[in-house]
Design a protein that fits this description.
By secondary structure, the chain is mainly alpha-helical. Helices cover 66% and strands 11% of the residues. It contains six helices and three strands; from the N terminus they run αααβααββα. A three-stranded antiparallel sheet has the order 1-3-2.
Length: 125
């Protein structure tokens, strides 16, 4: 089946699933968090220190959403104070090569996209 046929064969529920996933991983922080956790598990504070510009609240919300989707595993260690670590699930590790491919595509085509935007904006004036 060609790529065109695959796209045309997407049914309603599949389309909703695709949009929901793209909404989740396409937000400002999700892929950054996934990238940080790709090589090792990290504590919340370590994640916050490594991701510039993310607030504690946004990191917490994004981690909860990723955990709910089964992409991040949260482990609480019974210590005083409690130690909480985050790591990627097996499911999330299958996402990483696709995310890298998308990032590479964006980097490769960014000059063309910028030129198209500039040309479009110029025509609108």
């Amino acid at each position: 089946m060609s790529d065109h046929q695959k796209v045309c064969a997407i049914k309603g529920d599949q389309g909703r699933a695709i949009r929901a996933l793209l909404e989740r991983i396409g937000d400002k922080w999700a892929l950054t968090i996934i990238a940080m956790l790709y090589t090792r598990r990290l504590r919340f504070t370590e994640l916050q220190q490594r991701i510039r510009g993310i607030s504690q609240r946004m990191l917490s919300l994004t981690l909860r959403k990723l955990e709910r989707d089964g992409l991040v595993i949260r482990t609480v260690h019974a210590e005083v104070p409690p130690r909480v670590e985050y790591e990627l699930s097996a499911l999330a590790t299958t996402l990483v090569p696709h995310a890298v491919a998308l990032a590479e595509w964006a980097i490769e085509h960014n000059p063309e996209i910028d030129a198209n935007r500039a040309a479009h904006d110029e025509r609108q004036r």
